[in-house]
Amino acid sequence: MAKREDQIVVFDSGVGGISVLRALMQKLPRENFLYFGDSINAPYGTRPTEEIRRLTLERIAALCTANVKAIVIACNTATSAAIEDLRAAYPEKIVIGIEPALKPAADRFPGKTILVMATEATLREEKFSHLMAQCESRCKIVPIPCPELVEAVERNETDAPALEEALRRKLTPHLGKDTAAIVLGCTHFPFARDVIARIAGENVCLIDGSEGTAGQTYRRLEAENLLNLTGEGSVSLQSSLPTPEMLTLMGNLLDR
Ligand code: DGL
Questions:
Q1: With 245 labelled, which of 42, 70, 93, 106 sits at a CA distance of 20 to 30 A?
Q2: Given this model, what pLDDT does residue 117 score?
């Protein structure tokens, strides 16, 4: 039986899911979080689906001990590839995934153009086709794969002029007067918000799914009477690439 003081595992292919962890800690300050970034295998988004699924399932199996009450897959790519398998493998636990925040963007900007920046894997998966089908009668949607941005965040190089130049070339052709929003459909991308905002300009709204995921986690815990109401709150940051540089980067991203 799960207990209120049990841990919540937050998983990503690397450091990106820390953008979701921050939202979770704000919404659920009394919970005990264990964050795991699989940076040694990042990026996931350029790998075949089967491999992403295997990496995710293997890692979650290692993390999912008896004192874990919920698993948050803070990775759009791993969610697309493995969420159904995870729900089937852990029926006794709360399993939450993340998807590009296209629905809230389409609700907010009907009739406008919305760009979706995400990994190649997220954009080619069936889950994303379903999401597009639900929104495309309301707005024009332009999917844009951005693998270079994942690697830049992993290497802590989001200020590099070459990255800005590459993103500018990619985004500018789609930034017209009807472009109202960019969905940051990969959890790494909020850490490159400044460079994206510089290119997009102040009239384009940047939307990510971290708050929606935190809200969903809260509601599921509440529904199952598993909210920790009295704890002090704690967080442990772990990585499959636990170098001093990586652990420093993870700590800095959490504090940002
Ligand atoms: N952070 C992940 C996401 O939300 C993917 C990054 C990667 O390609 O590993 O999709």
A1: 70
A2: 98
